[in-house]
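User: I'm putting together a small comparison set for a docking exercise, and I want a reference complex before I start. The sequence is below, and the ligand is F0G. Could you produce the 3D structure with the ligand included, as structure tokens?
Assistant: Of course. I'll restate your input first, then give the structure tokens for the complex.
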Amino acid sequence: MAEAPEEIRPPDEPFRIKVVEAIERLDRAHREEALQRAGLNLFNLSSREVYIDLLTDSGTAAMSDHQWAAMMLGDESYAGSRNFEHFESTVRELTGFPHVIPTHQGRAAEHLLLSLLARPGTIVPNNMHFDTTRAHVLRAGARPVNLAVPEAYDPDSDHPFKGNVDLARLDRLLREQGPEKVPLAMVTITNNTGGGQPVSIENLRAVSERVHAAGRPLYLDMCRWAENAYLIREREPGWSGRSIREIGRAIFDLADGATMSAKKDGLVNIGGFVATRDEALAGRLKEELIVYEGFPTYGGLARRDLEAVAVGLREGADLEFLRYRIGQVRYLADLLVREGIPIFRPVGGHGVYLDAARFLPHVPVSEYPGQSLVVELYREGGVRTVEVGSVMFGDAEPEAGGAPPLELVRLAIPRRVYTGAHLRYVADTVTAVWRRRSEIHGVRMVQVPPRLRHFTARFAPVEPPIPARAGPGRP
Ligand code: F0G
């Protein structure tokens, strides 16, 4: 008897559902109309036009009953709110960083830190800058340089820590430029732009030693630190029995501070912070904060939001939650791999990244295969995803020795929002597009914004070549 194929099962949810939100599925004609109106850019869609929204895992989590209850504890005092105290003590306890400055989201933290530390003519290394980090480095007049290991650019490599920094290139940068040209180094955990890939403690330790030997500070972009810690627990020798918080502390102990968008592993819809060990810098950050965000005990947020962050940061580090969360990402990936669909490997922490270059090998990079695939996934099933490739990064200056951007489509999974059946629907949608891939054509950018262009660019389809007409002597 033929062996039954192994069943691919979604992870068991460690919660039950208390509140639901209705979602609607538009018919194909309405989706087509929406696509045209949006200029083939799904950032321009109304959420009403989307059935399953995998645009981002940022600020899209479902909060828990404890977080909603915390919102009712809002102490909306301008100065000295109790919610700030709870938030500050939670971040201190998790990270060990003594100075905690709240911001409304991650990019505000990046703005504060980079506008103070990065100077015109300097260089800021990172494993890979996320787009807003890169934009803030550029805005400060500095140059962002990506130093991820070569495996980070190879969709087939199963390297367990593809988020790692290439130490030889870091050494070369510090040697050739001199520390005065490198005001700080950053490492993004997990590496979102490179497929949500983790960084190992061993690599972070080596980076920390080098950066500190040069007399420079190391800052982490810790948006997805708990997912990174979970992957360390699974993959890095010596860490398997440890708690997420223990691993987190081992990571943070190697750094001088961090920026965080709490909209990811903080399980909130808004919020973030910058934290540091440097008291003098903290004072300057607070001065900037007051100009751009608000008083240091609320930083651009309602105080109740800080309370939700305090609770969410702990929930986000819960092992059972992370097992389910990363289990969902792997479930979706397994369904796609079974169909032979090319994805970026290994599967990272917060989403599945389709390898658009191999999904649509007949579409040249100049016709944006990633964006073309994003459009087709919406057209097919109302699933909204995001391109992470030549639209998002194609205007970046090619770095010395750097590879061209990967051509990926990210299916980011919001936390605690979609069920196994939703993910199954997504897999069916991707599979349907995969089966008709040879009929898919590219797109061209008809409106090109100067910065962060993926948010506002508009596209038009590249018309397929007109087939040769049948005539005398032709079949
Ligand atoms: N750093 C990383 C690694 C990020 O992924 C993001 C946001 C930010 C910084 C900025 O944080 O949005 O709170 O200002 N990433 C979202 C995403 C937008 O879809 O990956 P923010």
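The domain at 28-57+319-461 is CATH 3.90.1150.10 (Aspartate Aminotransferase, domain 1). The radius of gyration is 23 Å.
User: Thanks, that's exactly what I needed.
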